[in-house]
Amino acid sequence: MADFDRVDQQALLPDARAVAATHVPENGLCRGCLDAWSRLAPHPCTHAQWASVVGWLAPVVKQQQQAGGRESDER
Which of 19, 27, 33, 48 is an S-S bond match for 39, by CB 3.0 to 4.6 Å? Predict the structure, then answer.
């Protein structure tokens, strides 16, 4: 299993953007879950939460990679 620090989070951004675009609130429910699985899920659903975290982490990870400061490489 890949170490979480070594996963290329930048590669996840297109998927996260697509998930965020479809899993949107509609009357308190997630439209993406309703369309995809006919499931009534409150918004934010777990998919929307995942997309939000990936989108939030991407700039932080990119900055760390550019700085070259990866502590996990020293282990």
Answer: 33
pLDDT tens for the chain, 75 residues long, are 455 555 677 788 889 999 999 999 999 999 999 999 999 999 999 999 999 998 887 776 667 667 775 554 444
Domain limits, the chain: 11-66
Q: Which residues pair with 26 in a beta bridge?
A: 29
pTM of the predicted structure, to 2 decimals: 0.70
Q: Give the Cα separation of 19 and 14 in Å (integer).
A: 9
